[in-house]
Design a protein that fits this description.
By secondary structure, the protein is of the alpha+beta class. It is built from 14 helices and twelve strands. The chain has three domains: 49 residues, no CATH class; 143 residues, FAD/NAD(P)-binding domain; 135 residues. Helices cover 36% and strands 16% of the residues. α2 packs across α5 and α4 crosses α9.
């Protein structure tokens, strides 16, 4: 969204909504929720949505917007609802791929792109890591801005102001993932036994102070020893996700800073996994007895595996300085790049992270405009 369009939209909000939007864009999630709720555990659980994927704490200014970002949208008419795709996120990706293939699209996997070929100021194709070259009239990058502008093309082919902005683009990794294969269902101390509650999401966020202390560890270069953990049991929702009688537990964890004060993530990976399991075991007494296998993904592992710089799940912080017409940089937020036929999409563009499809759709509309 351009600056002029944003200004027109904001003028149409009305005075009361404009005040509310200003608060959401500038306040911390903790302070914002303090105006609406009294119960500490509720405020803490809601405020955790303001820190997911960011290198910020619940009392950091700007996290109220991140809270809003996680509650925007709807599913089948249910406002702010979250959904679970059959087969998990991979199932969703496969469904999109199958739809594309039905229209004749060829998809290459395990085929890293090393650079975009540029001739006379226009993108003409890509070079793969194995040396293969593919030519096309349109090249679209859904990689993060640092890879799109600083790795795939020679920065000398770009304006200095864009290169400088992307170099300063804040993309700090802050989260990790722990996946557990379980021999049985977890037994929560607060609500023992099986039941519909196991088909929901569980948040280890007992207080705002707890979340802030978890952030304190990360601020000084260490992973959180008492982390915030967002947990779901995909196999309860979709039994095909595990063999009969077995289950999988997916744990999103903060904080795990990409840059550690001491040691490397290869050295600290299992200690990080232990901290997560030990924290969960305080609430799930039988957990350690039912773990069959575990997978620990640090920000470094995420970067190496899926190519997200620093393992940042949003391809850049969702802060006011990196939103709307400033995402990824002022003057370059309309999905085009200074190189003709080379476009950007993905979470590093407007409107930001999450599995919404919005950045890709908006980029596609811009590409279609050029094709007319």
């Amino acid at each position: 969204m351009g600056l002029t369009g944003l200004a027109k939209h904001m003028r149409g909000l009305g005075e009361e909504n404009l005040y509310l939007l200003t608060k959401l864009m500038t306040m911390s999630s903790a302070d914002f929720l303090e105006e609406w709720f009294e119960t500490e555990v509720l405020k803490a659980t809601l405020s955790s949505s303001g820190i997911i994927g960011t290198f910020l704490g619940p009392r950091s200014p700007g996290t109220a917007y991140v809270l809003l970002h996680h509650y925007m949208g709807e599913i089948d008419g249910a406002f702010r609802a979250w959904g679970f795709a059959k087969g998990g996120t991979g199932g969703l990706a496969n469904a999109i791929a199958n739809s594309a293939k039905a229209f004749g699209v060829e998809i290459r996997t395990e085929a890293s792109v090393t650079n975009v070929m540029v001739k006379n100021g226009a993108a003409i194709g890509v070079v793969l890591q194995n040396g293969e070259e593919y030519y096309a009239n349109v090249i679209v990058s859904s990689l993060d801005p640092k890879l799109t502008f600083l790795k795939l093309v020679d920065p000398k082919q770009l304006p200095d102001d864009l290169v400088s902005a992307i170099q300063k683009f804040n993309i700090r990794g802050s989260s990790g993932k722990v996946n557990l294969a379980l021999d049985a269902l977890p037994n929560f101390a607060c609500m023992p036994g099986a039941g519909p509650h196991l088909a929901g999401a569980f948040s280890i966020s007992p207080s705002i102070n707890y979340l802030e202390r978890a952030y304190d560890d990360a601020k000084y270069g260490d992973f959180s020893h008492k982390p915030y953990i967002d947990v779901i049991l995909p196999s309860v929702i979709d039994p095909d996700m595990a063999p009969p009688g077995k289950h999988v537990m997916s744990c999103f964890v903060q904080y795990a800073p990409y840059r550690l004060r001491e040691g490397t993530w290869e050295q600290k990976r299992e200690a990080f996994g232990d901290a997560v399991v030990n924290t969960l075991a305080e609430y799930i007494p039988n957990l350690k007895d039912i773990i069959l296998h575990r997978q620990v993904m640090t920000p470094w592992d995420i970067e190496q595996t899926v190519g997200l710089s620093q393992g940042n799940i949003f391809q850049g912080e969702l802060t006011l300085s990196q939103l709307f017409f400033l995402r990824p940089a002022a003057g370059y937020a309309k999905f085009r790049t200074p190189i003709r036929n080379y476009y950007q999409c993905g979470s590093g563009t407007h409107p930001g992270g999450g599995i919404t499809g919005a950045p890709g759709r908006l980029a596609a509309l811009e590409i279609l405009k050029e094709a007319k």
